[in-house]
Write a structure and sequence with these properties.
single chain, Rossmann fold, 2 domains, ten-stranded mixed sheet, 10 helices, 36% helix, disordered N terminus, Nucleotide-binding universal stress protein, UspA family, UspA
Length: 287
């Protein structure tokens, strides 16, 4: 039996479409992840936004019973999480394709930030960032941490470095964790010199809330990727700003870099500042 128009137009679980607050969207493409849910909840809490949990269904115009039930269960799960202080809502996201379902939801529900698991491909993340103008956050698919006590934040001075600090700070506040901001000086690197790197780290540390402990360090030597992989072994989570270099992007995406993914010793999160200044809530460059 097909879904009725009343079902297609029903309000969100736990709220109404008329709510005039900023929103963080967690679209579930395949299966719910406690790690992604926790990070999405931490970001929503820090941004004082509503957390909208959306189960993505393609090839249909309406939400089926099973999808609605799963959304309701995930909303209840989130509300029972003591680290998530945000208002939690739920909605089935429908459309011809996953990207169209999320893009439509982002516009309809005035979404500011989209937090995804690695069931979102590199192409899908890039497409959503381009088409929505929202901040995007991707949580890499490694073994979820039992707890988060420390977070590694490599700072390279790119246009999304401030977003990485914002996301890491949000997760740190939710878990009573501390941050280590690092800058890697590669041999022959044409990037920031030592003084500029120190200024970048100080700027990043200044962005963190007063109740979050922050350490800073400059690392001399090897490649950025190898140093991040090595340092990840000393922390529960790594948060990076959206990089342009393929090797760094593959810490998040793709089976082509199975060796790198296998070496990284914690969950890696990538943060991208949205292109639409009226929607974006995360910081940009720390320069």
């Amino acid at each position: 039996m097909s879904d009725s128009s009343d079902e297609r137009e029903r309000p969100m679980i736990g709220g109404s479409r008329g709510a005039s607050k900023t929103r963080t969207l967690y679209p579930i493409f395949q299966a719910e992840s406690d790690t992604v849910l926790g990070i999405a909840g931490a970001i929503a809490t820090a941004l004082d936004s509503q957390l909208l949990i959306g189960d993505v269904e393609t090839g249909t115009d309406g939400a089926g019973y099973e999808s609605s039930r799963e959304v309701a269960e995930t909303v209840l799960h989130a509300r029972q999480n003591p680290s998530i202080a945000a208002d939690v809502l739920g909605q089935t996201l429908t459309g011809p394709s996953p990207s169209e379902a999320v893009v439509t939801a982002a516009g309809t529900f005035q979404v500011n930030t989209i937090v995804m698991g690695d069931d979102a491909s590199e192409g899908l993340e890039s497409q959503l960032a381009t088409q929505t103008g929202c901040d995007t956050v991707v949580v890499g698919g490694r073994a979820p941490p039992e707890s988060i006590a420390s977070i590694l934040v490599p700072i390279a001075g790119g246009s999304h470095s401030g977003a990485a600090v914002d996301v890491a700070s949000a997760v740190a506040e939710a878990n009573d964790a501390w941050l280590e901001l690092v800058h890697i000086l590669e041999t022959g690197d044409s990037g920031p010199d030592r003084d500029e790197a120190t200024a970048l780290l100080e700027s990043g540390a200044a962005r963190a809330p007063d109740d979050v402990e922050v350490d800073t360090r400059i690392i001399d030597g090897g490649s950025v990727t190898s140093e991040i992989v090595e340092e990840s072994g000393y922390h529960d989570l790594t948060v990076i700003g959206a990089p342009q270099k393929g090797k760094l992007r593959r810490l998040i995406f793709g089976s082509k870099a199975a060796e790198i993914r296998g070496q990284a010793q914690n969950t890696v999160v990538m943060a991208r500042k949205g292109a639409d200044p009226e929607l974006s809530l995360l910081s940009g460059s720390l320069d």
